[in-house]
Sequence to fold (113 residues):
Amino acid sequence: MSTPKAIEGAMNHWNSIEAALRAANPGASEDDLYHATAKTMNQTLGLRRSEEHLVFDDGIYSVWVGHLFATIARKGGATFHVPAGHAWFERVAQADTALLVEARYAELIAAVR
Fold:
């Protein structure tokens, strides 16, 4: 199979997964749909799952930690995926209260501006 055909096949597969998830989860945010589609796509391709677990979620901010990334996000805002081994990984991974999560998120936003 040529590279363009392989890419087209992968994109068609992505689109079919996303459409099924969108139909099954009306009202889900674009961000939630993207992450669910990516996880499902990785599983169908047999790629290693990161075994993420939820550390904090108050409906506005959330922190997820896995073997590969610590993820901090604000609903309707930016999402930061900090790779394991990065200086910020532990700071994000240990943010388990609203005060800590808001502070870490604000620090990351300031760092990218």
